[in-house]
Specification:
The chain has 328 residues and is of the alpha/beta class. It is built from 14 helices and ten strands. The strands form two sheets. Strands 6-5-4-7-8-10-9 form a seven-stranded mixed beta sheet, sandwiched between helices. Strands 1-3-2 form a three-stranded antiparallel beta sheet.
């Protein structure tokens, strides 16, 4: 197969960071929200941000050149065509995901060091709370979009007790509860995530059908009595053996005949397809001690080692691939 690569395309790839960095800096400064309120001149923007005039001018002009801002008579405003994506409060916003990408920039920038000396990349000790909020927000936006098709693919059937392990703010759990009125759910996640989940369940009017359990699945026992368990975008954070231990905990929490659903990448046997999964493995390299993107055969072997049977690939769709297994 002839490659489409050329010296020009390679140079373009090498310089792609420039557009990314300009966008992420604007997001970190919340420029799009500021300029969505109406056109501002450079002096007004500098005054609002407390920023450097030369730097701010160059940044705003670059954003205008990229089509993200509109510049007219020396004044800037957020392009209305993208304002819904880049400001909070819109149903279409991707702002949490972009903030998460801004945090990832810091660890990805240390990739060479990680390759030479091992990972994960070091982080600032003050980065934790903002990073968690951005991550959970990014997962919420994606899950709210994907939940209906995912639940259809899973087909919960007669399941009435769901446990969402590492369920974040509960977007998939909310989707299941809305799809199956007779279902009750348990959401299990770290203590600092639970308040975010509680806020979302209260807004959805579903607090009477969910139990929020704070804990760490690496060290704590999962609540039992379940007949459906969801591990969504969890296993890539762990090593294979960590996943086997987690699968065993899930198996213990399920009633006989219960089902586990793993949503994640299910890589090809040579680990190069899909390409997004291979790049995501790099993300796990710089951000975790043992995480990776796993092949279907690796996921299947881990589930079977943990006691699951009839392991099957329900759906092959990049990060939204679905693997099921049944507790005998």
């Amino acid at each position: 197969m002839k490659s489409d690569l050329s010296s020009e395309s390679l140079q373009h790839t090498a310089r792609a960071f420039s557009r990314s960095r300009v966008l992420l800096t604007a997001v970190e400064l919340d420029l799009f929200t500021l300029l969505a309120e109406g056109p501002l001149g450079i002096e007004e923007v500098v005054d609002r941000l407390g920023s450097d005039t030369r730097g701010t001018t160059i940044l705003l002009d670059a954003l205008a050149a990229m089509g993200l801002l509109v510049k007219e008579t020396g004044r800037y405003t957020t392009n209305p065509d993208v304002a819904g994506f880049l400001t909070p409060g819109s149903e279409d916003t991707i702002l949490p995901g972009l903030l998460h990408s801004a945090h990832l920039w810091k660890t990805w920038s240390r990739l060479t060091e990680v390759i030479l000396g091992g990972g994960p990349a070091t982080r600032s000790p003050t980065d934790g709370e903002d990073r968690t909020k951005a991550f959970i927000g990014a997962m919420h936006v994606r899950a709210m979009r994907d939940a209906p098709s995912l639940i259809t693919a899973i087909s919960p059937g007669s399941a009435r007790n769901l446990i969402d392990v590492g369920g974040g703010s509960g977007s998939y759990t909310i989707g299941f509860l809305n799809a199956v009125p007779q279902m009750r759910a348990t959401l299990f996640d770290l203590p600092d995530v639970i308040p975010m989940a509680r806020e979302r369940f209260m807004a959805a009017g579903l607090m009477d059908r969910v139990t929020l359990v704070p804990g760490d699945y690496n060290t704590d026992v999962l609540p039992g009595g379940q007949d459906l368990a969801l591990l969504s975008a969890v296993i890539h954070q762990n090593s294979h053996q960590q996943n086997v231990r987690l699968y065993k905990k899930v198996c213990d929490a399920l009633e006989p005949g219960g089902r586990i659903i793993v949503r994640d990448y299910a890589m090809s046997s040579d680990r190069t397809r899909p390409a997004s999964g291979a790049l995501f493995a790099v993300n796990m390299l710089v951000n975790t001690t043992g995480g990776n993107s796993y092949t279907f055969d690796e996921i299947k072997a881990g589930l079977e080692e943990a006691g699951f049977a009839k392991v099957n690939l329900l759906q092959e769709r990049e990060m939204s691939s679905l693997v099921e297994g049944w507790k005998p």
